[in-house]
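Can you give me the bound-state structure? Components:
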Amino acid sequence: MVRLDLLIPGLSAKTDHFLFGICTLVLLRDGRRTILFDAGAYRVRGALIAALNAHGLAPDDIDAVYMSHLHWDHVENVDLFRNADIYVSRSEYDYTAAIAPSDWGTPPFVRDILDDLRLVLLDDREEELFPGMRTISLPGHSIGLQGLVVDTEHGKAVLAADALWSARDVVRGKPDLAFYNVEQGTASLTKLLEAGTIYYPGHDRPFRLEDGRVRYLAQSAYRLRMALQPYAEDLTCAFSTETGAALTGGLLPADRA
Amino acid sequence: MACEITLLFTGCPASADGFWVGASTVALCRTDGRLILFDAGPYAYRPLLLGRLKRLGLAPADIDTVVLSHLHWDTATNADLFSNADVVVHARELAYAEKPAAHDWATPPYMARALKKLRLKPVSEECDIAAGLRVVELPGHTPGSIGLVAGRELLAGDAVACARDAARGHASEWFSDGAQADASLAKALGCADLIYAGHDRPFRVGPPIAHVGDYALRIRLFVDPVGMDQEICVKSERASSFATWPE
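Here's the bound-state model for the whole set.
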């Protein structure tokens, strides 16, 4: 049985000023190894280190980083893990030698990031990489995206990365962001849904399907503080996915007690 | 020769819990037939940056010079898009980025390695890079922070992060030398009437310090995968009367 901890839940949001690129980052422990699933965008670098610290870990304690694919928002922090084997699909890695001009998602300098790390290239065959952790090929979003199917105490968890961008892909029956190949992406979506019962999307919170309905298993909340006036206080705006409280009576659950 | 400055990205003085916002200013300068980009933004700008250039009828290959105010993740990351451009950066900044200090979380350790594949033009003193466009040294935020002066306008990078720092006369965030950062802030405020801050709208130095133009940030998200998109919009606009708003 593998212990799975969600370090950062993916965020299914966008702004008109920048992409968030906040993807799901997961910590896996099989009793022997400490494995990180994806490394995240540069902007979560501090949050990732803090999340590891909260589990009593530092970047140097990570034995392996499993890279689902080499898009900017998954790879920018992989250089933090100096002691880790970095698992990358061979087709993803080979592709970075000649990135398609229309592909803005894969940084042309990705090899400069990976350069002096301990790379392990994975062939396109599915295998039990570590006990209770099986690779699963899910191309379509990118050329050689690979997920991981993990045996946990709650069931088989499918770490799908952007083959399942958000829960909306399931509802609509098609991937929202199949940049590389839509047909492959659609087939990968069907395949990953059959591979387990708990789903970790690339940019959304983990969920189960109950009678075809999405039930999220984690919350997310963010606060944005803005110094919009030179001589005044900050303005803070927050959004959160808190589970529904009864608002109509004017009483929050705490007041009712 | 007057230099025309167009904002491609208007910086925003925002911070968040859980991620670094990095909404930095990216500007296009046109002077004497030259197309000069001041800062290149974080990778998270990339498709938007390409789209905004396209809307101006420009391709990345049309940019002849990219000036990088400093080598942080949120200012220098897209420099590689501009294959025909000389990339101007301070020599001290480049040397520093080869081995950033351990406490410096903002300079990616691979930044210098990636930049070295580009057509770098390091500068080590104040100089003109085009007609009416001068590089000024504004160190402190980082060891080799620079700005660009056009007449009485200054593209300041993070030497002037936001109007509030200018109002307080104090650089709130620095990675190299706080006293130097405060001195550079004073220098910046003294050499221009209009400042394009690194993470803010442009503002008039005044006194009083006053923003030029409005600002709006829209965040689109969903909490129900079967439901509708939701949008949050934060705006900062010219003051109006509550007697007449909304119409």
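A couple of observations. Chain A has two domains: 3-216, 221-256. The first helix of chain A runs from residue 45 to 54.
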